[in-house]
Q: What sequence folds into this?
């Protein structure tokens, strides 16, 4: 097996080449050596009605896709996952074009190296009657159920690719195909950039593009700073061309880990407001559980959408997460599902899903007693927020990095020597550079916790174990 990192990408899309392709379903899996790992599979909200023929073919509807994340929501994660990976797909050029179309629409550079299993099969198995995926999987006895589902496609392509790699024993064919895709820099590089490129490290961190006046015009993050910076100059995007033409100097900071690079990028964009960073300038909507009294003086809970702002109440990045929390509160504090918005019928609730309602909707429970339960539920979601620290590798050997979150609020990050020990939160604070809690830092840390739960160490207020 080749000593390279491969990402198997499959998707469902619609649109024409003259217009941005819209992706509505996406699956990414990774192949390192013989280890195959599914990374994520998701529907994608195109933020517009889908054509009827697409719905008929896929079974997806506008209602289903409305609940899915938009491409903007997954764009940064997708760039992170594909960074330093070779994209593998059946009809890889079409897959690459669809991704590039979506990324270019958002102002991202995307020009990943890619390999096509159809093209590989033609080279390595020249006598096949057909090279369609359905035919190849049938002949090679690869499990594959036809349909417009990207996860099925991804599983079949991954097995096919591993079979093809075994046929290319020395890896010469794949190496030649990859080398043939190596192009020249599309955007002009000023003389001063040549020496700058040679100084860029192949490590995680952030980089800053500066204009002739020394003002930062773009901030980016990368697992591999040098490779990511060069990708801007390889891009044929109009936005990338304007950025590169405006750049007179390139600076960088090593961070040691991708998590710190993401947090540092968010911090710098908020402080410097670079003109070419478009995504983080948008007003992002979050979801909150709030209470309000009705005409009878009864406290009712509901989910409210509003622009992100720091709040003592719990903040949810997705409406589905807010609904889950509301279900938990309704059950835990014996609240009425009609009064928490989980039931929409008029009159009394029916205890088919929630058996804990004490009858406030039927006049069996005193309003004051019920309001106290609502107050306890609201206090619970304030106090129940975790205090925790995340330890990541540092910038150099013998160093580690830590990220501190108290009561659900991001405090900042810092570096310390492996030999240093910490006995309390107050000591921990001494190692932290205070940073701003924002929508982006909240989203970055939430995604990290989901993916790496074992790296999150819960702490008490007065000591760390």
A:
């Amino acid at each position: 097996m080749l000593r390279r990192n491969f990402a198997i990408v499959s998707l469902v899309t619609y649109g024409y080449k003259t217009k941005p392709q819209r992706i509505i379903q996406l699956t990414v899996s990774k192949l390192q050596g013989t280890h195959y790992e599914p990374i994520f599979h998701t529907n994608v909200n195109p933020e517009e009605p889908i054509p009827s023929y697409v719905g008929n073919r896929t079974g997806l509807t506008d209602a289903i896709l409305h609940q899915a994340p938009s491409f903007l929501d997954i764009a940064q994660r997708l760039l992170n996952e594909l960074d330093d990976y070779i994209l593998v797909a059946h009809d890889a050029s079409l897959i690459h074009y669809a991704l590039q179309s979506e990324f270019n629409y958002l102002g991202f550079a995307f020009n990943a190296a890619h390999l096509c299993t159809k093209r590989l099969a033609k080279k390595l198995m020249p006598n096949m009657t057909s090279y369609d995926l359905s035919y190849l999987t049938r002949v090679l006895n690869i499990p594959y159920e036809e349909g417009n589902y990207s996860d099925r496609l991804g599983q079949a392509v991954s097995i096919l690719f591993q079979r093809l790699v075994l046929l290319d024993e020395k890896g010469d064919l794949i190496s030649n195909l990859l080398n043939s895709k190596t192009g020249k820099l599309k955007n002009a590089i000023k003389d001063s950039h040549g020496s700058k490129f040679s100084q860029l490290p192949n490590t995680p961190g952030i980089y800053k593009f500066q204009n002739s006046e020394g003002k930062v015009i773009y901030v980016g993050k990368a697992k591999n700073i040098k490779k990511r910076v060069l990708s801007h100059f390889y891009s044929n995007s109009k936005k990338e061309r304007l950025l590169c033409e405006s750049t007179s100097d390139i600076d960088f900071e090593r961070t040691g880990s991708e998590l710190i690079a993401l947090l540092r990028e968010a911090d710098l964009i908020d402080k410097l407001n670079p003109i070419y960073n478009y995504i983080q300038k948008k007003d992002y909507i979050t979801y909150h559980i709030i209470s309000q009294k009705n005409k009878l003086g009864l406290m009712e809970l509901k989910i409210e959408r509003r622009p992100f702002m720091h709040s003592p109440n719990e903040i949810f990045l997705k409406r589905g997460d807010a609904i889950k929390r509301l279900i938990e509160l309704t059950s835990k504090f014996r609240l009425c599902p009609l009064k928490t918005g989980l039931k929409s019928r008029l009159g009394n609730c029916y205890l088919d899903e929630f058996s804990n309602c004490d009858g406030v909707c039927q006049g069996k429970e005193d309003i004051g007693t019920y309001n106290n339960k609502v107050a306890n539920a609201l206090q619970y979601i304030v106090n129940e927020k975790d205090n925790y620290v995340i330890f990541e590798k540092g910038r150099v050997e013998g160093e580690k990095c830590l990220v501190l979150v108290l009561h659900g609020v991001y405090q900042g990050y810092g570096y310390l020597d492996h030999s240093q020990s910490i006995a309390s939160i107050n000591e921990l604070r001494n190692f932290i550079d205070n940073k701003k809690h924002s929508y982006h830092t909240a989203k970055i840390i939430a995604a990290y916790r989901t993916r790496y739960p074992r790296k999150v160490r819960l702490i008490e207020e007065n000591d760390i174990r």
